[in-house]
Write a structure and sequence with these properties.
This protein is mainly alpha-helical and 106 residues long. Helix content is 63%, strand content 0%. It has helices spanning 3-10, 16-19, 29-79, 101-104. Helix 1 packs antiparallel against helix 3.
């Protein structure tokens, strides 16, 4: 379901004064409590939909910025002059330890 469809689905179809029927004054307290709970749930869902839309927009903006930054880096890398390969660093010569006097005496 796309965000626009979600928003349409979540959008109130009637005004609050139209929701309450004329016979609401005679409705049972349980029914009135249920209607109030349902209105509260609806309001929570609407708030979540707004937060979701904001988060998706923010994520889209972040992705677009990352893609632009990536392109900029790639352009800089392709424009940088190529350096000749440097010779590998020399390894220090291995030093052979001289035998100790006790080993020579044997």
């Amino acid at each position: 379901m796309t965000l626009s469809r979600l928003g349409t689905w979540l959008a109130p179809q009637t005004t609050p004064d139209m929701v309450v029927p004329v016979a609401a004054a005679t409705a049972s307290p349980d029914l009135q409590e249920l209607a109030a709970s349902l209105a509260s749930v609806r309001q929570s869902v609407d708030q979540l939909a707004v937060q979701l839309a904001f988060g998706q927009r923010q994520m889209g903006d972040n992705i677009a910025k990352l893609q632009a930054d990536e392109q900029e880096i790639l352009q800089k890398l392709s424009a940088a002059p190529m350096r000749p390969n440097a010779p590998p660093p020399r390894k220090p010569a291995a030093v052979t330890p001289e035998p100790s006097p006790s080993v020579q005496a044997r």
